[in-house]
Amino acid sequence: MGIFTNKSIFDELFNHKEKIEQEFGDNLDWQRLTDKIASRVRYPIKKIDWRDENNWDEIHELLINNTIKLEGILREYLKNINSKRSPISTYKFLF
Q1: DSSP secondary-structure letter at 55?
Q2: How far apart are CA 40 and CA 75, in angstroms?
Q3: In a 3-state reduction of DSSP, which class is residue 53?
């Protein structure tokens, strides 16, 4: 298969966008960032004013819970992508 680039990994994940979002339980913001090295899959926190310190505990809880949830979902897809990679590739996912 050859060595995967960041964009090809993103594209592989994006091929499963609907299923990933279904598992997550909400829409995600998929940013390929074609002119950059990195790409992003993010879940923006809406309707909470982050400038108000009274909301910070709630925001921290949302950040932690949603990060753990998304990482758990993506882990399985990334394992599958990793298994398709060429054995000459030295890049390892963190998973």
Answers
A1: G
A2: 15
A3: helix
Q: Where are the alpha helices (DSSP H) in 1-95?
A: 6-14, 17-24, 56-84
pLDDT tens for 34-59 read: 888 889 999 998 889 999 999 999 99
Would you state the structure tokens that stand for residue 20, as one six-digit string?
């990933």
- How many domains are contained in the chain? 1
Using CA atoms, how far apart are residues 81 and 77, in angstroms rounded to an integer?
A: 6
For residue 92, tell me if it sits in a domain. Answer: no
- Cα(73)–Cα(70) distance, integer angstroms: 5
Answer yes or no: is 15 within a domain.
yes
In 3D space, the residue among 25, 31, 28 whose CA is nearest the CA of residue 11 turns out to be 31
Predicted TM-score (pTM) of this structure: 0.78
